[in-house]
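Expect chain and fold; see below:
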Amino acid sequence: MSVPIEDYALLSDCRTAALVSRDGSIDWLCVPRFDSASVFGALLGDEEQGCWSLRPADPEAVSTRAYAGDTFELVTRWETAEGVAEVHDVMPVDKRHLDVVRRVDLIRRVVGISGRVEFVNHLRMRFDYARAIPWVRQAGTADAPELRAIAGPDALVLRGVAVAPDDHAHSGRLAVAAGETRDLSLTWHPSHHAPPEQLDVDAVLAQTTEWWQSWADRIEHGGVYHDDVVRSLLLLRALSHQDTGGIVAAATTSLPEDFGGVRNWDYRFVWLRDAALTLQALIEHGFIGVAHHWRTWLLRAIAGDAGQMQIVYGIDGERDLWERELKSLPGYEGSAPVRIGNGAAEQYQADVVGEVLLALGAARDAGLEESAFSWPLERALLAHVAEQLDRPDNGIWEIRGEPRKFTHSRVMLWVAFDRAVQAVHEHGLDGPVERWERIRAELKEEIDAQGYDAGRGHFVQSYGASEVDAALLVLPQVGFCAPDDPRMLGTVAEIERTLMADGLVHRYRTSTGVDGLAGAEHPFLACSFWLVVQYAASGRLADATALMDRLCGLANDVGMLSEEYDVHAHRHAGNTPQALSHLALVRAADAIAAASA
């Protein structure tokens, strides 16, 4: 039976991530990168797809857990009839480039607190999305046990605990008394290299704790919802690749938006939109260096021809994200297909350039100097979108139905030219400003005429439609209209009437068939945070605070939010942790702070 999504906690070394269940099982790990093939895939099946379980032998043991300070060292405290012990799970952060270190480590430190606690250690390795059972051999000694596993390009080394074969897996036991410590480590390395040396666990734990805490200490936020904001910013950093600067949308693939359905997507890639919005949130809280890193990534990814720009790339800027279905992973609660890759890479989404220019403009305003290529890149992007202003698109929600002229997309085109005009007038950059001003004015006139239904009194999802879309909540946030504009207030009223379920906001009504997919979905957390921003900015501070409290209360015990929330079963849905949910939380907290000042 699948573990509830909200029962997982994240470990990250800022190159890849692992998900650890409340019961002490690591059920998801892809190495060496977020988007690599899994070696533990039980998240999308069961233990047959790979996991590493470490828990007390006592079946009645009770666990509580929390991160150690502002880090990703997960401390799970186990209380049994015989004693109390802790498991400290951590992925060490190495400042050197992965090309140099050629290893990914996962440490599980077992600490005796009182009495004596016996643990069962069960390791089932399944490489390449559970399509490859590795060749395994014992290579250590009685005093220094070592298990080595190899399949194709990947190798794992388990150290610190003796294990024996157990039905194509390996199991063993260990015990700790009060004051005792046992260190277990699992190390990935390229199979054509010799196993790397064992880590000095005390040293790397201290280094990793200092790395995370020093990063968190730089966060500029003294406002409301402080703990929620700090943990959200930490999660955004945990989803940012240390070497390349790419910011992935989530750590997982194919966690369902519709349990048992087909709305299962791979989010382990860099969406320009999500990354740009994440960048804005980080800039607003003091991290200008991240902006430089990501802008360099963007220049490499888009490269020479803006006309070839995709809306999503691999972590290194790869373009080939061929979407296919895996048979080796049965899916979370049977939600199939499990997909790797993402066909959205082939879509046209007109809003993306607007979000990118918003982020680059925010970096410019924060003091990031232009590089030799940064402003020419922005000019090239503007020239590209100007050539296809009339082209319908797939929109922010990546619909797989017929492209349309989505109002949100048209507004983000307006934003692109608006920020370009600002760059000329406020920062002295060069460009055809008169042409940009003309296009901006034409888009404004068009949106006012076709993106707004005067009879119904609200903006519409797309030209010619009567439905609303939660993405319309962004219009005041990007400066297209005022939060208290009567047209916006009418739009909010219609969203409240048609898109809300138990106080949370759906993206749109799937029953209209606009997205071309079977099934339905649950309220989208980022959209609900957008409504918080709108409430706060339009004088409804009490409503904003009430909704914010509700949303923050949906985070799990370690502060993680997924993509959606099932209001009927009271459970997380969709990929996790979702960058868009957490960056929207940060922006919502900032909006409440501003409205309260």
